[in-house]
Design goal:
mainly beta, Methylamine Dehydrogenase, Chain H, six-stranded antiparallel beta sheet, five-stranded mixed beta sheet, 1 helix, about 45% strand
């Protein structure tokens, strides 16, 4: 067991747990986990006017609706993902909660419809992660014993008239716990990380037949916390069209070639100045730059919210470029890139949207925000957990540990 103790912001809470044996690579338990939001917080719709949308501070983003955890039969919130049903044109939010996964039809973002919950396979967990491939959701949990990976056919959501308590269509049990899950939709492979297998590195699974996942190999990179796996289309000709995973591995960024599942190998490892805990990262669409969220640098080094930028145009030798510093004190958690925008879930400061130009020349700035957690602005582990910006309509969904599901729109 490896533990790091720090002082957490204004709350004076000390606790940061990472890599707990079979429990995976765990971030701190958010103080608000399992609690319900204060009564009276706005549920929307609310335009962002004069810096506010109801009870929430904002700039350029409107609240379409807020769905409380209680109304989804849930406790604390965690991960979020989305699903677009190409047959019906409907859009759905898949909201992770400590006790399971909620499904919400958000096709009309002002009037979302809660469709039901897939309960946890074992016990409650602060850490749940969800990804989608070919109309199936794949769900893992950490700190929940032999949970494995739930597989759920999302087409079962079509035409529902009343909320359901669902059962999974399959359970993959070649691991028990997993902290995170990545799926390369171009290849049909899933990558579970922080499991009780593969030295907590990449546990690789063929999901080309979604209800029959098959183990295909390990890349045993210790303490892998999260990863993104892609078919590489960047400027490094040595790896053109290879399947590459870029992993956030607590004390380093690790890039691996996983094209041959029986023979994956590490291409490079990288660190950067004032590294606290490499939590999660995402590539720009041209695969030239990597934007990294560090979950501990704000507290350990007493710096504002930071997004670290690495030039990975040479996969063998990444180069640290700079750290973008926001005006907030909050801890960053999960970020995703769409076009030239970065969508960040930054705990107590909520959703932050950055727009970038030439990152080599540090061209990046915040263009909009929506603070999902008006209760605090401190550097602690409460508030926005994750964001999903990839729905065709442009609707943005955010999960908040305490305040539930937020359905948002850029104005």
């Amino acid at each position: 067991m490896k533990a790091i103790a720090i002082s957490i912001g204004v709350l004076g809470i000390t606790a940061f747990l990472s890599a707990c044996g079979g429990g995976g690579n765990n971030a701190a338990v958010p103080p608000g986990a399992g609690t319900m939001p204060p009564s009276g917080l706005s549920t929307g719709p609310e335009m962002c006017v004069g810096g506010s949308a109801g009870d929430f501070s904002c700039a350029g983003i409107s609240l379409r609706n807020r769905v409380s955890l209680e109304s989804m039969n849930g406790a604390g919130g965690n991960d979020i993902w989305g699903w677009f049903d190409a047959q019906s044109g409907n859009e759905y939010a898949l909201m992770g909660m400590t006790n399971g996964t909620a499904f919400v039809d958000i096709s009309d973002p002002d009037n979302p419809v809660y469709l039901g919950i897939l309960p946890t396979h074992t016990v409650a967990s602060v850490w749940r992660d969800i990804k989608v491939f070919e109309n199936y959701a794949f769900i893992v949990a950490d700190g929940a014993g032999a949970h494995g990976m739930q597989v759920f056919d999302l087409t079962r959501l079509r035409g529902l008239m009343a909320p359901q308590i669902f059962s999974p269509d399959a359970i993959y049990s070649d691991f028990g716990n997993a902290h995170n899950l990545a799926i390369n939709e171009d290849t049909g492979f899933a990558y579970a990380v922080g499991t009780n297998t593969c030295a907590e590195g990449l546990h690789m699974i063929d999901i080309s037949t979604p209800v029959n996942p098959l183990f295909v190999g390990c890349h045993s990179a210790f303490d892998t916390h999260d990863t993104q796996c892609i078919i590489y289309q960047g400027s490094d000709a040595d790896y053109s069209n290879s399947e590459i995973c870029v992993s956030s591995a607590e004390d380093r960024v690790e890039i691996a070639d996983v094209t041959l599942k029986a023979f994956p190998f590490t291409i490079s490892t990288s660190i950067y100045p004032e590294l606290g805990f490499v939590h999660q990262a995402w590539l720009t669409e041209d695969h030239r730059f990597l934007l990294v969220g560090d979950e501990l640098d704000e507290n350990v080094f007493n710096v504002p919210t930071r997004t670290h930028v690495l030039d990975v145009s040479d996969l063998d030798s990444p180069v640290y470029v700079f750290a973008y510093e926001a005006a907030t004190a909050s801890i960053d958690h999960n970020l995703y890139v769409l076009g030239n925008r970065v969508f960040e879930a930054n705990y107590t400061s909520g959703l932050r949207i950055l727009e970038f130009g030439d990152l080599a020349n540090r061209e990046i700035a915040e263009i909009a925000f929506f603070d999902t957690y008006p209760q605090s602005n401190g550097a602690d582990f409460s508030g926005a957990w994750s964001v999903y910006p990839f729905l065709p309509s442009g609707t943005i969904i955010v999960s908040d540990v305490t305040n539930g599901l937020f359905i948002l729109s850029l104005q």
